[in-house]
Specification:
Blueprint lengths: L13 E2 L3 E3 L5 E3 L6 E2 L3 H4 L8 H12 L4 H11 L6 E5 L5 H10 L2 E6 L2 H10 L4 E4 L13 E7 L5 H7 E12 L5 H4 L6 H8 L5 E13 L1 H10 L12 E12 L1
Parallel strand pairs: 4-7, 5-6, 5-8, 6-7, 8-9
Antiparallel strand pairs: 1-2, 2-3, 9-11, 10-11
Bound molecules: zinc ion (ZN).
The site of zinc ion has 7 residues, from loops.
Length: about 250
């Protein structure tokens, strides 16, 4: 199901015991943590190399506190995954959403992210899923019609590639920050829903739309973690405890 990311190759990748190799002999390592690294040199030089280790760890602490649990629950309710599903999370970060959904439904889970620290963290905590470092903005390293479901949760959106790797009857769930997401920290944001629907309009049909919102009571350390996870410059003095709104617009397409 995985395909080679060497430019113009796209041959199937097979496991040779130590790593993954294509019919043309391009080979990729499986890390000690268990993930597959399909990044190409041009991806490493990307201006968007993905999350840093500090941001990944900060975000994971917030997930571990249960801050994002209501958002996860809303995604699970909208998606209603089944054990027979084969799910790709494109831009999966530390794997929290994908692995939590997979643990609940028992489906086959595949996570891709351009950040090596994020995928390393995902692979160490959730060894039951497949984790791949790759640049899904360039192309999604899977064969056509590999998945019944694609997730893009506050991540990049590659509409033609999502269409290609989804089965014809597949579902796509896109989560984007709602205008009131983190409003206490950065003010009201743009409403991205219309533009996102336009991005997917030519290849998908919108079948459901919900807003998931939760207000978390964060202590000072968690506010600090949140600032690190969104790359806000930190002040000299530790921020104070506060209530923070987490809010996602969920769009479900088929
Ligand atoms: Zn190849």
């Amino acid at each position: 199901m995985l395909i080679c990311t060497v430019r113009g190759c796209a041959q199937a990748l097979l496991c040779d015991g130590r790593g993954m190799v294509c019919a043309r002999g391009h080979s990729f390592d499986i890390s000690r943590a268990g993930y597959i690294n399909l990044l190409q040199p041009q991806d490493r030089r990307s201006k968007k190399p993905g999350d840093t280790a500090a941001a990944v760890q900060a975000r994971r602490r917030l997930h571990d506190q249960g801050v994002t649990r209501p958002l996860l629950q809303a995604i699970a309710t909208m998606l209603a995954p089944r054990s027979s599903d084969v799910v790709l999370d494109a831009g999966c970060g530390d794997g929290f959403y994908l692995a939590s959904l997979a643990a609940g439904a028992g489906f086959a889970a595949h996570g891709v992210d351009i950040s090596t620290p994020a995928i390393d963290a995902a692979a160490r905590r959730y060894p039951g899923c497949e984790w791949v470092v790759a640049n899904a903005d360039r192309f999604v390293p899977y064969a056509d019609e590999s998945f019944s479901t694609v997730l893009s949760i506050t991540a990049r959106m590659n509409a033609p590639e999502f269409r290609r790797v989804l089965r014809t009857d597949g579902k796509l769930l896109v989560a984007i920050p709602a205008p009131d997401d983190l409003i206490e920290l950065r003010g009201r944001g743009r409403d991205r829903a219309d533009r996102t629907m336009e991005t997917f309009a030519s290849a998908f049909t919108l079948i459901d739309r919900q807003r998931a919102t939760t207000i978390a009571d964060l202590d000072a350390q968690s506010v600090q973690d949140l600032l690190v996870s969104i790359y806000r410059p930190l002040q000299a003095k530790q921020p104070e405890a506060m209530h923070v709104t987490f809010s996602l617009d969920l769009l479900l397409f088929r």
